Amino acid sequence: MRAVVALGGNALLKRGEPMTAENQRTNVRVAAPALASVARAHQLVLSHGNGPQVGLLALQAAAYADVDPYPLDVLGAQTEGMIGYVLEQELGNVLSRDVPLATILTMVQVDPADPAFKDPTKFVGPIYTRAEADALAADKSWTFKQDGDSWRRVVPSPQPHHIFEIRPIRWLLDHGVVLICAGGGGVPTMFLPAAETTLIGVEAVIDKDLASELLAREVDADLFVMATDVDAVYVDWGTPQQRALGQVSVAELRRREFPAGSMGPKVEAACRFVEATGGRAAIGSLSEIDQIVEGVAGTQVVPGMEER
Asked: Which phi and psi (to 5°) does residue 16 adopt?
């Protein structure tokens, strides 16, 4: 079975944890055995988040006053290499030496007319107090929105339309490579509107789960998993009536609403994959990844089945 697993930010950096290289490597080292277990039994394709890492690089670049800060597409490319390197190394330390691994720098096409460019919503970077956010907004013309009790920078999050490297990605998978790609939703790129011959980077962040869903479809995956820090999708979250969804149909999920800043994109990505392919999507905890892949843990989204 070919499985695409989108790693949530908790696999790299826990909320509120200092963004040190050591902390990120430690978190990946903890996750690596579970991911290796999946790779031994199935063909594994990994994607990952990168919001905090992009935010940190942006701050570091801004601190060097002799040059303008690097744009988000360049920072996204940098994080794809950095995170892919750590994932490759830690997976390689627990897999057999004859298992090939590779990271693909992945550009993802977006539409310049996407309405997301007029309404930035995607959180990137570290958390701030209100006073810190106001100061940065005045200094750098960044947009901030509240995230829980803190404030974070927000940027446009356009829809993904095409993965430019899909042909080499398919070739590597056909040759048995454990592949890491579409990190952070991929590097957002677009053709200049005047003539679709010049490709440029975009100051935006593509939602990781939606880009991973596109990846899963384009590599003909049998299973699409979003591994996060909760064990399932919940309804009535935060109330005495809250309950986890087990096996559930797309129709049942479409009838419900989920928070746009957290579970909403994951549910939307799961529904898109199942609707487009007739396959299976799942959302659950990285610590239960083996059981999720086998269909006995997490929220399992399937076609034509009502909730059980």
From this structure: 85, -5
Catalytic hit among 55, 208, 279, 298: 208
Told to judge if 50 belongs to the known catalytic residues of this protein, a careful annotator would answer: no
Q: Is the distance from CB of 279 to CB of 273 less than 8 angstroms? A: yes
- Amino acid letter, residue 269: A
Active-site pick, 76, 122, 125, 185: 122
Q: Which helix (H) or strand (E) holds 147?
A: strand 143-147
266 is catalytic: yes
- The verdict on whether 27 is a catalytic residue reads no
pLDDT tens readout for residues 152-211: 888 899 999 999 999 999 999 999 999 999 999 999 999 987 766 789 999 899 999 999
Domain boundaries, the chain: 2-109+161-294
Q: Which residue in the list 9, 51, 284, 298 is annotated as catalytic?
A: 9
Q: Report, at the CATH architecture level, how domain 2-109+161-294 is classified.
A: 3-Layer(aba) Sandwich (3.40)
The pTM (predicted TM-score) of the whole model is 0.89
